[in-house]
Design goal:
With about 300 residues, the chain is an alpha+beta fold. The chain contains 8 helices and 14 strands. The protein has helices at about 35-55, 85-95, 95-100, 110-125, 135-145, 160-170, 175-180, 215-225; strands spanning about 5-10, 25-30, 185-190, 200-205, 205-210, 225-230, 235, 240-245, 245-255, 260-265, 265-270, 270-275, 285-290, 295-305. Strands 1, 2, 5, 10, 13 and 14 form a 6-stranded mixed sheet that branches. Strands 4-3-9-6 form a 4-stranded antiparallel sheet, with no helix packed on it. A two-stranded antiparallel sheet has the order 7-8. A hairpin with a 5-residue loop joins strand 3 (about 185-190) and strand 4. The radius of gyration is 22 Å and the shape is elongated. The N and C termini lie close together (about 5 Å). Residues about 10-70 have low confidence and may be disordered.
Length: about 300
């Protein structure tokens, strides 16, 4: 099963600024020679945030100054039998403030799955013991079955990114904000090298699938690089009415506050499933995403789910 990563846009209150006059909405796309200094300037803040995150994961300790115990309320979810993939997804979503606040009111949820998710997050926020996710699992199974997977078994191993897509699609009916929170819009342009006619399409997705290379930033850069189509991978041009070589270009039109990235490690070749075990650097301080060619949105990693 593939893993996925959730990246948080720098345009949020969760980012601390060394320079209060800095704007985190969108920055002008810097030349390639100036991208690394920006990353370097963020290192200090990122280390502080990483340190805070690590400390929150440690068991309660005694406050030496006030002599008061530090209490933590993060509780787990019971595994109901091969349901760890659902539990992992829920724990990822539960640490995203903009997500669970959008589901804060059970009464406003239009979908049954949204109500179950909202109730579950409320239980996790106050529980002193592990929480039973059975009601959510039941509603999730119903949702996926209605979507066309008639023989779906909630208690068997499943692909986590695929199940996450079902969840996000169902919860999007509860809030326009939720629908836009993860949405990525990519424009794909294919230009025939003979007649120079272009076919332009737009794709909308909650999860961006990338091929693994040495780093997740390079995977993203490769995805957006110009690609030449020829020979077995040629393009059928409607104007020429024949197979022709062509140029394919992708451009990110917009992206939400969170970007979910899936590394496509498993490939099917002639009916045989193979796995790419390449070690990928998925821990940079920031992820640079060019949007509409003239601005660049910067993300930091919020969470990781890894299944093998």
């Amino acid at each position: 099963m593939d893993c996925f990563y959730i990246w948080l846009s720098r345009d949020t209150k969760d980012w601390s600024l060394e320079n209060e006059s800095s704007s985190f909405v969108a920055t002008e796309k810097p030349p390639s020679t100036k991208r690394r200094p920006l990353l370097k300037n963020l290192t200090r803040n990122s280390q502080k945030q990483d340190s805070a995150t690590e400390s929150s994961a440690k068991p309660p300790q005694q406050d030496k100054e006030n002599s008061k115990p530090i209490r933590y309320h993060n509780k787990g979810l019971l595994n109901k039998g091969n349901t760890c993939y659902v539990n992992a997804i829920l724990q990822c979503l539960n640490v995203l403030p903009q997500f669970w606040t959008a589901l804060a009111s059970v009464s406003t949820c239009k979908s049954t799955l949204g109500s179950s998710c909202s109730k579950l997050f409320q239980q996790l926020s106050s529980a002193k013991v592990s929480v039973d996710p059975s009601p959510f699992l039941r509603d999730l199974k119903t949702t996926i079955t209605k979507a066309g997977r008639k023989n779906f078994d909630i208690f068997s191993q499943q692909d986590a990114p695929e199940i996450l897509e079902y969840i996000l699609a169902e919860l999007s009916v509860d809030s326009v904000f939720l629908n836009n929170l993860f949405q990525i819009r990519v424009q794909v342009s294919v230009t025939c090298n003979i007649c120079h006619q272009s076919q332009i399409t737009e794709e909308t997705m909650p999860i961006l699938q990338l091929s693994p290379v040495s780093s997740i930033q390079r995977s993203l850069d490769n995805f957006l690089e110009t690609e030449e189509l020829s020979k077995q991978n040629s393009y059928f041009c409607l104007s020429c009415n024949s197979e022709q070589s062509a140029t394919l270009e992708r451009e990110v039109l917009s992206c939400g506050q969170y970007m979910i990235i899936q590394l496509k490690r498993f490939l099917v070749d002639n009916g045989r499933v193979t796995k790419n075990d390449l070690v990928v650097n998925c821990h940079p301080n920031s992820l640079f995403v060019p949007v509409r060619a003239d601005v660049e949105v910067v993300y930091r990693r919020a969470f990781r789910l890894n299944q093998s």
